[in-house]
Structure formats: C-alpha cells, structure tokens
Amino acid sequence: MRLTIVGCSGSFPGPESAASCYLVEAPFEGRTFRLLLDLGSGALGPLQDVIDLRDIDAISLSHLHADHCFDMSGLYVVRKYHPSGPPPKIPVYAPPGSDWQLSNAYGTTAPNGMTLPFEFHELADGLETTIGPFTLKARRTPHPVEAYAVRIEHEGSVLVYSGDTGPDDDLADFASGADVFLCEASFVESAENPPDLHLTGADAGRLATKAQSARLLLTHIPPWTDRAEVEADLLTTYTGDYTLVRSGDVVEL
C-alpha cells in the first residue's frame, strides 16, 4: 500500500494544508486502485496534484463534519459535468444519512442528487467489507456526530486511521499490530479540553503504545496549535517511530 497525505489540517484548512484527506493506493487487476479516506475542506485542489479526479475508485468518509467531507461537493461537479462525460458511479462508505446531508450541503436541485455520481454504503460499528484490493473494517469512535475509525488491510499490511475521536482505550485493540497508525492529535495537554471530542499527542501515544503499532503518524493538528507542543506531549507516552505528517508526505507500507 501507498499512503499519500493530501490534507492534514485539523478542523479547517490552514495556510500549509487542506483539511483531512488521505489517498491509499494498491495494485488491483493490473492497475492501481485508489481509495480516499475523507475529502475535507480544501482537499480537492491538492488532490489534483497527485491523481486525476476521474481515477478515484472509492471513498470512505469518517464522519460528516466539514473538514472531513465538504469537498465532496466539488467532486460531485467533476463526476457529473466533466467534458469527457460522467464516469461510472463510485462507492462511498459513510455514516447513515450521508447521501442526503451531502446533497443538501451542495444544494442539488434534484432530491438526493448526490446519488447520481456516487453509490452510498453505510458504515456501521463492526462492519467488514471488501473494496477493490482492500479489506475495510470500521469501528465507531466517541465524537459529537456519528464517526468511525477504519482499518485497511492489504496482503498482510495494515493501515489504521482514527478519524476524529475522543479518548477511547478500546481503539488500541482496533489498531493492534498496525504497520501504520494514522491518528489525530488535535489537542494539547496544557489546555482544558472538551470531553469526547479529540485526542492530545499524549493520548495518541498511549493508544499506539498499547496497540504496538510499528509506526505512528500524527495528523489533524489545527493551524492555531503549536506542533512542537503536540510532539512534546506525544513523547511523554510514546518511544516508537513517529511523524507529525505534512501535506504531500508519502508512506509506503
């Protein structure tokens, strides 16, 4: 598998990165299969530096906050109105009701117009399904809206993406043995943080240590947050291999 960090800014796009969007690629039937994990605000622009938007094969949306899904509106335009003609529908794995909510966000004139270029499938706690060459498993996480972490497996390699989550010790079991644990770290320990919303670097480190992940990638750090403080928090609970990701980073699994 190859993981490309398209956007990693937390909560909204920053001057150096779009919001959450991660491209996962693997060989499949003589070509490259391309799965997007989230398509947040501002991500559609830099994504075009990496792939042709018509070459997306599937999408998984962790939840329906704008920084994880709102650029679906732009992709709707590409899939419906491209001069070369509309390509086949692509599957979108997302929380229940995503088709209607995304349709309303775009303002389609036809009821539930998002179903024209996309075929929606509901994520659910414990879901396991096959998407091209990947096995995708989903686990619900604590967050103000229905949200999911996903585990992507391919030929013995494992990538786990936390999505957005508050502290959740059981998430370590879901991430157990991951080659790469892509985990959010939006908060810092020095602040008074709301419950069940996001993780600190220390929280992420505890999860990765318990999961025995081979490599931890910290993401979803808001533009106003000091990355050095997030890293310092991480190092109080974690001694393994890690990176605070930046837009454009590529990781081979």
From TrEMBL:
Keywords: Hydrolase
GO-annotated molecular function: 3'-tRNA processing endoribonuclease activity
Superkingdom of origin organism: Bacteria
Stored InterPro entries: Metallo-B-lactamas, RibonucZ/Hydroxyglut_hydro
Domain Metallo-beta-lactamase: 18-202
Record-linked SMART domains: Lactamase_B
Protein name per its UniProtKB record: MBL fold metallo-hydrolase
The species this protein was found in: Aeromicrobium tamlense
